[in-house]
Write a structure and sequence with these properties.
binds iron/sulfur cluster, 2 domains, about 40% helix, Alpha-Beta Plaits, 3-stranded mixed beta sheet
Length: about 300
């Protein structure tokens, strides 16, 4: 092992150890939800027309491969239910409206930016952060690819770049953190042509959602999805039909981190002694870094030929 590689290995084991020992502080970070500071988006399913402009805008904003705008008007894509992926951090699905086949229900899905995010709690190296504005972001440089966040998320949101040989990453909606920091709207919100998406203070969005439901009682069911689910989420939805019919999971109002904490503590109590776990994690990190170095050096040799 070269000095540099050894230094990286020790640094990474150090990070892993510190992060793992500091589980309670990571969990505390997940509980820093403060009503009033948190921003959100209200999604009005009664207004969305399924144009998929939001999907494309999100891809463009995140430098992901995007097709021509016309490609997104092809409604064949709605034949299969889709989940957000590493290529599309948000997706729209369509459901039949039994009352009026000409006006289907179109539903945009992405990370819900939970008030008490299970992904933050589950991440054993503290790669995830719940920011004060509500956005749940993550640091690719800290992520070791353990995929606990994928297991923990009650909405099955984080995805993994399985098709990438070099340094595959976890991917999900980041609430356009860099854009909103600059005072811009999230790309999807800015590009929705019918204002099905409203960005703003979460508390004010809740008031708006309830007013809309009260004003049009025949159009909406009496529920704001995300108000209470898993302790509340930054993204809120109103809809003309029950959310179960739109593939939303039925969840209680208790934050999900309790479940993931149990997973973490289970590891320590029953499966792997901590020192063995630290060593294993450090080894995984060193091996993946070494693999990347070897692949890069092979690629360079090929290019130099
Ligand atoms: S929806 Fe899943 S990935 Fe998004 S913040 Fe909640 S737990 Fe984390
Ligand atoms: S908030 Fe940003 S990252 Fe999230 S779905 Fe909208 S465009 Fe994509
Ligand atoms: S851009 Fe707006 S109307 Fe079009 S699919 Fe997305 S949320 Fe619906």
């Amino acid at each position: 092992m070269s000095d540099n590689a050894r230094r990286d290995f020790l640094k990474q084991v150090g990070i892993t150890t510190a992060a793992t020992v500091g589980l309670s502080s990571i969990t505390a970070k997940a509980d820093e939800y403060k009503s009033g500071e948190v921003q959100g988006v209200l999604v009005d399913i009664g207004v969305c027309v399924g144009c998929r402009n939001c999907e494309r805008a999100c891809q463009v904003a995140h430098n992901l491969p995007a097709g021509d705008p016309e490609e997104y008007h092809n409604r064949d894509v709605y034949k299969e239910f889709r989940r957000p992926s590493t290529h599309s951090l948000t997706v729209v699905n369509e459901f039949e409206n039994p009352k009026n086949k000409l006006i289907p229900y179109d539903v945009k899905y992405q990370c819900m930016h939970c008030n008490h995010p299970a992904c933050v709690s589950a991440c054993i190296v503290g790669a995830f952060t719940k920011n004060r504005n509500g956005a749940v972001t993550w640091d690719t440089n800290k992520c070791i690819g353990c995929r606990y966040c994928m297991v923990a998320c009650p909405f099955q949101i984080p995805t993994f770049e399985y098709d990438k040989a070099i340094q595959p990453k976890i991917m999900k909606c980041d609430f356009c953190f860099e854009r909103t920091k600059e005072g811009l709207l999230p790309a999807c919100v800015a590009n929705c042509p019918v204002e099905a998406l409203t960005y703003g203070n979460r508390d004010e969005l809740l008031v708006l959602a309830k007013k809309r439901i009260a004003r049009y009682p025949d159009k909406y069911i009496q529920k704001v999805f995300g108000e209470d689910e898993v302790g509340g989420t930054s993204w809120l939805y109103i809809a003309p039909v029950d959310f179960e019919k739109l593939m939303f999971p039925t969840l209680g109002d208790k934050p999900a981190p309790g479940v993931t904490e149990a997973i973490q503590h289970g590891i320590f109590s029953y499966f792997i002694p901590p020192l063995a776990l630290f060593g294993w994690l450090g080894g995984v990190m060193w091996l993946s870094k070494r693999k990347k170095e070897l692949t890069e050096s092979e690629t360079k040799k090929e290019e130099d030929k």
